[in-house]
Design a protein that fits this description.
The complex is a heterodimer of chains A (about 240) and B (about 190). Chain A has two domains: about 130 residues, no CATH class; about 80 residues, no CATH class. Chain A has about 240 residues and is mostly helical. Helices cover about 70% and strands about 0% of the residues of chain A. The radius of gyration of chain A is 23 Å and the shape is flat. Chain A has nine helices and no strands. The longest helix of chain A has about 35 residues. With about 190 residues, chain B is an all-alpha fold. Chain B has one domain: Orthogonal Bundle (Arp2/3 complex 21 kDa subunit ARPC3). Chain B contains seven helices and two strands, in the order H-E-E-H-H-H-H-H-H. A two-stranded antiparallel ribbon of chain B has the order 1-2. In chain B, strand 1 and strand 2 form a beta hairpin. In chain B, helix 2 packs across helix 4, helix 2 packs across helix 7 and helix 5 packs across helix 6. The radius of gyration of chain B is 18 Å and the shape is globular. Chain B starts with 12 loop residues before the first helix and ends in a 7-residue tail after the last helix. Classes of the chains: A mainly alpha (about 240), B mainly alpha (about 190).
């Protein structure tokens, strides 16, 4: 199952997107500063709690499965040495903690993705990055969300066409070339039609965005983020 | 809804097309994350994201190619399922794949700058095979140097250990992608270059 925004009315859904972004950044910083068994145990409660508040659960982590092999193998590679003493448990534990901290950061990120619609994320970007660069990021991100499913379908269609014609017999480079060429041609075709359509419909740098406002529910989360940030600074300095 | 009282600031035709192309290429790199091929020389299967990074540099040039990959990272951070295996979220940008992801815009800029010998685009028919392959070789170097460094930092691994986990199983596949990219550029099959 793909991790994506799920319409709902949980506490996390009602938060301002900027609050959620700040919380993620503060959480990640704290996870890097407190990579100890006790620190990570406390952060586990906080991270899992934030995902639960967004209505998420274990199944949302499945989309990160591609990262799991590296996270699992790294402690083994760090602990094993070629030659005496063969095993260094201390190094393995360090890397295992580091792997676990990455997992926690992914848990919190899953909560954000689940609870924040694209429009709000876009507005948050344009608040955070002022001027033209922010407007470019905002408009571009919205278009990526819109066109990703279409291009995925284009690529799937190309792959099916290749295998229907016995393409599985061909060399891998040939198959990659055929599928990628189809993808680029579709992407450029769509981009040029879109560019013309945007110009024809008065595509503006300053469209009307949803209004963002901090509410009463944002206060505890912002306070928690500030605490995490303060704890990080205290540890580092 | 917030109401804008200032006048509408229209995007010029050329900027609109460039923005559309950058966004569509970012979406294509994301769609490439779902396409896996068996790797003849390694048990790890090949995804095409890195091919997308090369092609962004080649077809969009150093500036818009890099801008396109920045859009890819921003969209992924905000929840578009465009990262490895269809994952998303800010966590990826500070997690174990952070080095690889942050290197993409830089790699696209490097590939574009070498292929086009500067910022302005030139006709791809005039680009020789050595500069095409050399550009992608440099791009691969940038991606893996930053990727392995990121892995070592994030998972507190030594340099040799990081290379073992993060490069050995994946590097052979890059040769396939470079070969495929040369085939794509040389075949004239891409109409809108």
């Amino acid at each position: 199952m793909t991790l994506a925004y799920v319409p709902d009315d949980t506490a996390a859904h009602r938060l301002d997107p900027r609050t959620k972004l700040w919380f993620q950044i503060a959480f990640a910083a704290a996870a890097y500063a407190y990579t100890t068994p006790r620190g990570l145990a406390a952060l586990t409660l906080l991270g899992v709690g934030s995902l639960r508040l967004a209505g998420g659960g274990l199944r949302d982590l499945w989309s990160y499965r591609a990262a799991f092999p590296v996270l699992a193998v790294a402690p083994v590679v760090a602990g094993v040495t070629l030659g005496s003493p063969w095993l260094r448990p201390g190094r393995a534990v360090d890397t295992a903690l580091a792997s676990y901290r990455v997992l926690l950061i992914l848990v919190v990120a899953a909560g954000y993705v689940r609870s924040t619609p694209v429009r709000e994320s876009r507005a948050a970007i344009q608040h955070a990055v002022p001027g033209r660069p922010g407007q470019f990021l905002g408009a571009g991100v919205a278009l990526v969300f819109r066109f990703l499913p279409l291009l995925r379908r284009d690529l799937t269609a190309a792959r099916e066409a290749v295998s229907a014609r016995g393409g599985a017999e061909r060399a891998v480079t040939d198959r990659i070339r055929i599928v990628a060429t189809a993808g680029i041609n579709r992407a450029f075709g769509r981009a040029d039609r879109l560019g013309t359509a945007l110009a024809a419909r008065c595509f503006a740098w300053n469209p009307t965005l949803p209004r963002l406002a901090f509410g009463r529910t944002d206060v505890p989360v912002l306070a928690a983020s500030a605490l995490l940030a303060a704890a990080t600074v205290w540890r580092v300095v | 809804m917030a109401t804008n009282t200032e006048s509408v600031d229209l995007v010029g035709d050329e900027a609109a097309t460039n923005l559309a192309r950058a966004a569509l290429f970012a979406a294509l790199v994301g769609a490439f994350a779902y396409v896996t091929f068996p790797n003849p020389v390694s048990p790890v299967s090949v995804t095409l994201q890195v091919l997308g990074v090369f092609l962004a540099g080649i077809y969009l040039g150093p500036v818009w190619g890099a801008a396109s990959l920045v859009l890819y990272l921003a969209a992924g951070a905000l929840g578009a399922p465009v990262f490895q295996g269809g994952s998303a979220g800010v966590g990826q940008l500070v997690g174990q794949s952070a080095g690889y992801l942050w290197s993409y815009p830089l790699a696209a800029a490097v590939v574009g700058a070498v292929v086009h010998r500067g910022i302005t685009l030139r006709d791809l028919d005039t680009v020789g095979l050595p500069s095409l392959v050399g550009a992608m070789f440099l791009g691969t170097l940038v991606i893996y140097a930053l990727g392995v460094a990121g892995l070592a930092l994030v998972l507190s691994l030594g340099p040799v250990e990081a290379v073992t986990v993060g490069a050995v199983a994946f590097l052979p596949a890059e040769a396939l992608k470079i070969a495929a990219a040369v085939g794509i550029v040389r075949s004239d099959a891409v109409a809108a270059a």
